[in-house]
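Hi R.,

As promised on Friday, here is the backbone we talked about, encoded as structure tokens. Could you run it through your design pipeline when you get a chance and send me back a sequence?
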């Protein structure tokens, strides 16, 4: 049984003849679709045929229409002609020259070769910086191999005048490689670690391209990378021991404004970081170990590519007067009764002098023990959170808090802080084995 459906609201709409869809018979006269090139040409021509002058007219603004314009545009997008093959050949030639370059030690010849490569890259629209930073030689960059094959790294320990020295191959490559990518900086770190070249590593860290300044540091220091002097020496007769000495310019100013100072160095086949910073809430730099918010903290850790190790160490900060004004030797009269009137008078004069200069006596040195119950391990990358760290608050020592105050006796007259890290790569015991 079929029932008639009552009409619903809106069913009474009636289409006008001109709004109705076309019949199937009307499609018989539609021409077939054009190919892509013909469609582009006919649409362009049709758009100008009714209103624009003839394309052949010298004053016609539509003289670059139709198929010709499509071909010219295609030429700028896809370059498979002889010039592309030539650029590819030049690229391969430069990569071969860079490979040969890092195997030699003639820095003067390297400068000429690099200048020729730079000229060729400009002519063929290539980037020499990109080629130098590509891992095109046995999985590494030319910069990596230039550092690996760099002769006599010990010669940088105390150069007479770096400005008088001719640039080596590493410096020549770096002059054409800027700006450096993060991956390239990581390659440079790895090469310095593999060669234990602490002197070159410190030279690289003074370059803004290698270690850019933070915004606050750039304003404080006028865009100049601070020369944090870091010297590393092995302990004679102790294959597990080393001493790293630091001189940190503008220590208090940088801590108060930038709130972070990072020192990096290479010792015992490992890359280390010693950081001074102001603790924040849930600070990941401490490995999330609790430190009072606002306290000044020093933290020791390993950097990527370093093997794990035990360590027992202490950070030592001395009063500068202990280095410049050592305590006087005791007068003979102070160890016994005077043997003559002259000795008695000299002893009295020395006691008066010592009492008048008592305020100038150096204060005891600050010693902060830095050890860990487990081995230190390195993070996978510079951007990874490192939980394996040794954080120590400067407030752990009764005199350490004074480093925050103006007029602190442990700060040099020029505002620098001088400190040293004495360390042994052994499992720490209950007693300090460094002392």
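Update: got your reply. Pasting your designed sequence below so it's all in one thread:
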């Amino acid at each position: 049984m079929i029932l008639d459906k009552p009409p619903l609201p809106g069913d009474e709409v009636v289409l006008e003849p001109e709004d109705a869809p076309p019949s199937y018979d009307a499609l018989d006269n539609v021409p077939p679709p054009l190919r892509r090139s013909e469609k582009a040409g006919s649409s362009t021509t049709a758009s100008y045929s009714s209103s624009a002058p003839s394309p052949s007219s010298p004053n016609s603004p539509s003289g670059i229409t139709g198929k010709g314009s499509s071909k010219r545009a295609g030429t700028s997008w896809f370059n498979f002609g002889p010039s592309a093959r030539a650029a590819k050949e030049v690229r391969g030639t430069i990569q071969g020259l860079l490979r040969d370059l890092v195997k030699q030690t003639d820095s003067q010849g390297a400068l000429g070769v690099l200048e020729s490569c730079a000229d060729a890259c400009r002519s063929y629209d290539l980037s020499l910086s990109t080629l130098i930073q590509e891992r095109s030689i046995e999985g590494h960059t030319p910069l990596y191999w230039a550092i690996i094959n760099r002769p006599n790294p010990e010669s940088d320990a105390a150069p007479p005048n770096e400005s008088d020295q001719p640039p080596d191959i590493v410096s020549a490559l770096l002059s054409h490689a800027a700006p450096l990518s993060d991956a390239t900086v990581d390659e440079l770190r790895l090469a310095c670690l593999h060669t234990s070249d602490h002197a070159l590593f410190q030279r690289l860290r003074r370059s803004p391209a290698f270690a850019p300044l933070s915004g606050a540091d750039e304003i404080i220091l006028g865009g100049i990378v601070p020369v944090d002097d870091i010297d590393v020496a092995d302990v004679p007769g102790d294959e597990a021991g080393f001493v790293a000495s630091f001189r940190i310019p503008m220590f208090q100013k940088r801590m108060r404004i930038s709130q972070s100072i990072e020192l990096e160095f290479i010792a015992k086949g490992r890359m280390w970081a010693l950081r001074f910073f102001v603790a924040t809430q849930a600070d990941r730099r401490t490995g999330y170990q609790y430190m009072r918010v606002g306290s000044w903290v020093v933290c020791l850790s390993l950097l990527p590519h370093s093997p794990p190790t035990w360590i027992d160490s202490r950070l030592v900060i001395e009063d500068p007067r202990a280095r410049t004004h050592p305590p006087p030797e005791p007068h003979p009269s102070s160890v016994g009764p005077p043997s003559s009137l002259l000795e008695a008078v000299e002893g009295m004069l020395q006691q008066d002098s010592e009492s008048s200069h008592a305020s100038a006596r150096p204060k005891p040195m600050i010693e902060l023990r830095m050890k860990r119950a487990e081995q230190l391990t390195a993070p996978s990358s510079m951007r990874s959170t490192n939980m394996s760290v040794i954080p120590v608050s400067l407030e752990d020592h009764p005199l350490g808090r004074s480093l925050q105050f103006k007029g602190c006796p442990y700060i040099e007259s020029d505002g620098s802080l001088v400190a040293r890290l004495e360390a042994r790569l052994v499992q720490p015991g209950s007693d300090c084995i460094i002392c």
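One thing I noticed while checking it: The two ends are 108 Å apart (CA to CA).

Thanks again,
M.
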